[in-house]
Amino acid sequence: MAGHSHWIFIGLLAVMAYPFYVNLPLAGFHRTIVPYGQQQCTKITAPGLSYCEDAVQGKSGIAYAACDPAREKKNKVLGYDFFAQDEPIPSGKIWRLDYSKTPAEAMPMVLKGAPEDFHPLGLTLDEGLGVLLVINLPVNQDVNVVEVFRMESEAVLVHVKTIQHGSIYNPNGIQLFSNPAFTSPDGLPSFFISNDHYFTNRALKLIENFFVLPMANVMFYDARSGSVTPVIKGIAFANGVSGDHSMLFVSETNRAQVHQYTIDSDSHHGLTLNRVRTTKVDMAVDNVEWDPKRQTLVAAGHPKGLDFMRFAMARNRSDPAVPRAKSMVVSLDVPAGKLTCLFADDGQYYGASSTGYVDHQAKVLVVTSLYEDGVLVCKQGPEGGS
């Protein structure tokens, strides 16, 4: 009996030690963030252009950013709500940024027919179809949805439909599937979408995070039938998704890594994903952006995860006792497996980076942040940050 008790004790100790083993590197205690790349950066600012979680490139020089000022006091992903009862909650917007001009221009797009309770998170663009898909986390509803917009003009998006499904419950990242065979007759593309947690209850989410439970997933929405099926399971906080017709990348935030999958598709039998590579990235990875032409993946995230969480959950983020949320954006040469830092910040200039992409024609890096005002544009090349 004593021998059995000994092994039970060891087993319990191992179970309790595992979260600390995983979370300590994620916390970033071992890291000192040295600012890098700021010298060639400028901030695009405008009243209301703040708390922009995601951005996608249109044609060269143009970005579309999903910005939600309500994140200052409410975040459905992290589970805090600091709004007073009956306090007005500002709606989010989609911004069109033109950084081909000097100075850059920022314009909130007109959203014809969009729901009033609009709080965008991830987004994905099919410029050929003129379709923008946006994850919406309404603050006054328990459901989370995908809003479909068509581009009427440079300044106007027309709301086409809302996609609500029981299997899209904690959506975070979204990536359209650029295979015409999976496009609906009315021109709506199919898409991949991550559920960052399995649980929707705040307390259970905290348990899922602390024990690094691999319960999150990625779903596939088939626009032809409106069906949603799981294609990836066993992820600890599935976050950003990016890819093309043959490849998909998924960031696993709580394990500081990115997974690469090949897509095997058949218009009659659906599709399957096969994992081919996992790359460790020394930060809590947020969104990722795949460049199939150059075979590079740009990843943004939080190199000191504990500082980020303390900052995000603080009621007064200007309090000197609250650590600043740090930033990091890296580029992964996928064939070579080589990581290169494009931007890093200690939180004093531009913290809490959530998305980064390189516009190679314009030779700039675009960075957005969950908690900063404005969007960052940094020159790249011999005179820039890479």
TrEMBL record:
GO terms of molecular function: arylesterase activity; metal ion binding
Disulfide bonds: 41-378
Binding residues for Ca(2+) 2: 54
Residues given in the record as Ca(2+) 1 binding sites: 123, 172, 239, 286-287
A matching Pfam family: Arylesterase
Transmembrane segments: 6-24
Cofactor: Ca(2+)
SUPFAM superfamilies linked: Calcium-dependent phosphotriesterase (SSF63829)
Keyword tags: Calcium, Disulfide bond, Glycoprotein, Hydrolase, Membrane, Metal-binding, Transmembrane, Transmembrane helix
Details of cofactor binding: Binds 2 calcium ions per subunit.
Domain of life of the source: Eukaryota
PANTHER family: PARAOXONASE (PTHR11799), SERUM PARAOXONASE_ARYLESTERASE 2 (PTHR11799:SF30)
Family statement: Belongs to the paraoxonase family.
Protein name in UniProt: Calcium-dependent phosphotriesterase
